[in-house]
Specification:
The protein has one domain: Enolase-like C-terminal domain (TIM Barrel, Alpha-Beta Barrel). The chain is built from eight helices and nine strands. The protein has helices at residues 8-21, 36-50, 66-79, 91-100, 114-122, 139-152, 165-176, 223-229; strands at residues 2-3, 26-30, 55-59, 81-85, 104-107, 128-131, 155-158, 204-205, 208-209. Helix 1 runs parallel beside helix 2 (36-50) and helix 5 (114-122) runs parallel beside helix 6 (139-152). The longest helix is centred in the N-terminal third of the chain and has 15 residues, at 36-50.
């Protein structure tokens, strides 16, 4: 679950709420827009508040220079952060940082499909790959990215682009097929949507998403709701 308000007290309350619901126990904090010391303190306070009940990771979205990242990574590790997603924009800089610091570094934005995955893997330029079906070119291309990572000894994480239920389930089926998924997934996109489009909602419970096992993707769209949400002029609708 992503904690992105930037307000430490609010994010702590949200984390405790998710833990109490037994919905999420791994939290990604969006940082990089504020001063480094402010971001580090934010991460440290949240980790201290949730303790061993949950894990804390951060996503910097390429906001730091290599010098800034070199200062921040040891402090994040000391704060209890276990994974840092794309701290810098450069693949070469990410590879250099990975060799200097023990905290796990994950490639995201620089990972755009099998070709980029191969180039990163050749220099073992990340500890973890974030697999996203849209960003990596579809289901088969994303599977190839995962295969490249596995062959190179790079660990895997099931990412999200905040998709709705349909794409989320497609991702879930792909991720469930991986031999290894060491860093879990973040398939919470449907939880952000205010109205359900499936006849039966996805099952998020006990800190996991249950992968549907029916025909096809294992889900059934609510056709009446789909029709209600369709806007004329954007899509051809069979009436």
């Amino acid at each position: 679950w992503t904690l992105a308000s930037g307000d430490t007290a609010r994010d702590i309350d949200e984390a405790h709420h998710m833990l109490d619901l037994r919905r999420h126990n791994v939290f990604k904090l969006k940082i990089g827009a504020k001063a480094l010391d402010v971001d580090i303190r934010h991460v440290a306070e949240i980790k201290k508040a949730i303790g061993d009940r949950g894990a804390v990771r951060v996503d910097v979205n390429m906001a730091w220079s290599e010098t800034q990242a070199a200062w921040a990574l040891p402090a994040l590790a000391d704060a209890g952060c276990e994974l840092v997603e794309q701290p810098v924009a450069s693949a070469a800089a990410l590879a250099r940082l990975m060799r200097r610091f023990p905290v796990a570094l994950m490639a995201d934005e620089i990972l755009q499909g099998p070709d980029s995955a191969f180039e990163i893997a050749k220099q073992h330029g990340a500890d973890v790959f974030a697999i996203k079906i849209e960003q990596n070119g579809g289901l088969f291309a994303a599977q190839r990215v995962a295969t490249i990572a596995d062959a190179a000894g790079i660990e895997l994480y099931g990412g999200t682009m905040l998709e709705g239920a349909f794409s989320t389930v497609a991702s879930a089926h792909l991720f469930a097929s991986f031999a290894n998924l060491q860093w879990g997934t973040e398939l919470f996109g449907p939880l952000l949507i205010t109205e359900e489009i499936l006849t039966a909602p996805l099952d998020y419970s006990d800190f996991a998403l249950t992968v549907p096992n029916g025909p096809g993707l294992g889900i059934e769209l609510d056709e009446a709701r789909i029709k209600r949400f369709t806007r004329d002029g954007l899509t051809k609708v069979t009436r």
